[in-house]
Amino acid sequence: MMRRIFLIAVCSFGLWSCSDLNVSAVETKPGEKIEVRLQEHKDVLLTPDNVLVTFSSVVGDSRCPEDVVCVWAGKAEISLIMENSRGASEQHTLSIPGLVSTPYQSASVEAFGYRISLVQLNPYPKHDTMNEPRVYEAVLVIEKLP
């Protein structure tokens, strides 16, 4: 938690650029939707409100592989941590079903003046790569609420 407060403070006051700290910053405007691609364990700073969003982990991925016939489509769930500049944080779980066309308009969460939806989780499972380690990337749609 102290790391997040430090990152928010440093980027806010311009002591270092966020790129030097391996944190991307995205400027947001009320009512505007932006698409953000975020790898697992990475952060994005939403400015000017200085809300840090972290793709914490993949909670589960039971999506039916694209080259297999399944009885159930399955789903993938991710954990996001959102923290504002005052140090308040919230953890949220977002999910997306398997076998849907992307981008998918999933349920969203609202926190600190933002609405976030998970529209895609890559890579989509394939039968021949099920046991290989994956580097996940979440595609999020983030909207600054008016």
Output mean pLDDT.
85
How would the global form be characterised? elongated
Give the strand content: over 45%
CA radius of gyration: 16 Å
Count of domain modules: 1
Strand runs, count: 9
What would CATH call the class?
Answer: Mainly Beta
Tally of separate helices = 1
Largest sheet: 5 strands, mixed
Which sequence of strands runs across the widest sheet?
Answer: 1-3-4-5-6
* H/E element order: HEEEEEEEEE
Description:
By secondary structure, the protein is mainly beta. The chain has one domain (2-144): Tick-borne Encephalitis virus Glycoprotein, domain 1. 8% of the residues lie in helices and 45% in strands. It has 1 helix and 9 strands, in the order αβββββββββ. It has one helix at 2-13, and strands spanning 24-27, 33-39, 43-47, 51-61, 75-83, 89-97, 108-111, 114-122, 137-144. The strands form 2 sheets. It has a 5-stranded mixed beta sheet. The protein is elongated, with a radius of gyration of 16 Å. Mean pLDDT is 85; it is low at 12-17.
Keywords:
elongated, five-stranded mixed beta sheet, 146 residues, Tick-borne Encephalitis virus Glycoprotein, domain 1, mainly beta, four-stranded antiparallel beta sheet, 9 strands
Brief overview:
This protein has 146 residues and is mainly beta. It has one helix at residues 2-13, and strands at 24-27, 33-39, 43-47, 51-61, 75-83, 89-97, 108-111, 114-122, 137-144.
What topology emerges from the helices and strands here?
Elements: H1 2-13, E1 24-27, E2 33-39, E3 43-47, E4 51-61, E5 75-83, E6 89-97, E7 108-111, E8 114-122, E9 137-144
Parallel strand pairs: 1-3
Antiparallel strand pairs: 2-9, 3-4, 4-5, 5-6, 7-8, 8-9
